Amino acid sequence: MIVEVTGGECTVGPAMARNEPAARDSRPGPVLASRIARAAAHALVLLAPAVPIAGVAGEELGRGWTPMSDDAALAWRSFDVLSAHPPLVGAFNEASVSAARPVFDLGPLQYFLLAVPVRLDPVGGLLWGAAVLAVLIAAVAVEASWRAGGALPALSVSAGFVVLAATQPRVVLNLPWNPNFGLYAFAGTVVLCIVVATGRTGFWPLAVLEGSLAAQCHLVYALGALASVAIGLGLGLLARHRGRAGLRRGLLHGVLGAGLGVVSLLPPIIQQLGSPRGNLSLLVADLGRHGARLGIGVGLEAVSRSALWPPAWAHRAPPVSGAGWYEHFLHALFTGSPAAGLAVVLASLAVGLGALFTGRAGLGGLGICSAAAALLLAWTTGSIAVSQMGVLTYLDAAYWPVGMMLDATLLAGAGTAVAAYLRSRQGTRAHIRAHQALALGLVPLVAWSLSVDLPMTASSAAVIGGWRAARATGGLASAIERRPAPHGVLVEPGVGLLPGGLDTWALVEAVAFRLEADGHEAALPRPMAPEFGPDATAPARAGVVLVDPAGRHGWRLAWVARPRRVTLFGVSP
Questions:
Q1: 94 — phi, psi (to 5°)?
Q2: pTM for this predicted structure
Q3: What confidence score (pLDDT) does residue 288 get?
Q4: Do 473 and 68 form a contact (C-beta atoms < 8 A)?
């Protein structure tokens, strides 16, 4: 997110108040009006990021949204948290397609956070639960920035979240999906760590929790989040030591945060210790497989495109459909200059180090955390195998907050002297009015975001498999429930995944989850089952129902005698 934390320099303090005559500040009317205006601006800055999230989620729920495909897997695993067999690993990893054994992401923290919403509302709980958590993540980042540096940094963070929703609409349209949900956690983590760098180490335990969530949602965020929390704590303790603001309390916050991080990782640790070859071992071993890698140069190309003019975050991400979309997509972000990307990272680092030496802890944290997150994100992107480069079509969004922060660092570094001069010349009331005017700039940004996102809720991007399949889920599940299945039911697709079977596969997974949530024992074929957890594996005597496309207008059910061999690219008897 765009953030300029300047260690309290933007707050209205006594030194600034001395620029105004005492008689003007002592009058109750102007002081009360200023406080009301400031409170209104504060509320606007806090609420702005919530508007596109709430608007899109509300529109999708009104259209009949239901968890499909990967979202159905997320809902199933979240539903299982409050059961006798809670999930211990994260989401199904892309590497599992070519691995001998299924590989999963780091941990199930996202499932644990969404468990209660999914239990309360199995159909829509995953969506509105993810929306509530994303709003909270954004609000905490904005409020922390306000407390650390005043209105201007908070306004920058708030505007960054709104711009993210407008220029990466795919993230908001499918917010529960773990790479998209993890993006909000990743952005919130880096912002909180920048705040911690100002000496406000009380935010560090929360930064650790959000960083763990980001890392457990998707591996692409793991190194950047880890580096940010480490750098943030180090700079925060340094700021406390220099300012004599309670180093012991800072160390206590560090211990508390470290303990919270360990607790958040207990499920994957338990799984690792309790299995002959745990998921963490498989994940580490898998990192060395799959042949040639993209190389860090590809990641630095994306850094240059995301930060240099015109930055990628300033306009909508390219679509992932239409003629020649893949080449256009790669050209839009992954064909920049590696040298320019490295130069931007080094410039941000230089600004951060220079700010530290001049006592500007916030700007120092911004520059150093931004540089570290960008460099490690580039390295992580470069470690992706060439054979799996298709994941770039949804991991591109990770560069949006990084690009914003790099640009914020360079702008803040260039404008520090000018800002200091203006602050020395302006009084308290003019300073407040300037921030109020800037806060009003969020209104057109929010309107822009809604104008982009809301029309897209009618497209197939809003629900995996399309709205036609989503609307068919309830009826098909009810039809299966009316037929007795004492030993459970295995739900199979009647067509292969490719070509043309995505909607049917998404529907099968949605129907199976709906049956499970309704108290029936449901199962899925072998290619699907690992993603949904151990209880999605079919028992030997389960009944078998086939979901088969019926022309262009729907699907039909067929009860068959025995399961068929289902593969990713076809169905063979």
A1: -55, -30
A2: 0.91
A3: 67
A4: yes
By CB neighbour count within 10 A (0-12 exposed, 13-18 middle, 19+ buried), where does 380 fall? buried
**For position 285, what pLDDT does the model report?**
80
Q: What is residue 572's predicted lDDT score, i.e. its pLDDT?
A: 56
Burial of 537 (0-12, 13-18, 19+ CB in 10 A): middle
Token output for 98: 């070519």
Q: Alpha-carbon torsion 303, 412, 444, 146, what sign?
A: positive
Compute the CA torsion angle 214, 215, 221, 223 (nearest 10 deg).
Answer: 140
> Which regions in the chain score pLDDT beneath 50?
1-25, 98, 427-432, 573
Please enumerate in sequence order all residues whose Cβ is within 8 A of that of 373, keeping only pairs 6 or more positions apart, or say none: 190, 224, 227, 228, 402, 405
Measured in Å, how far apart are the chain's first and last C-alpha atoms? 52
Residue whose structure tokens are 């963490």: 280
- CB crowding 441-477: b at 16 or more within 10 Å, else e: ebeebbebbbebbbebbeebbbbbbbbebbebbeebb
Question: Look-up: residue for tokens 């990272």?
Answer: 345
DSSP letter, residue 93: P
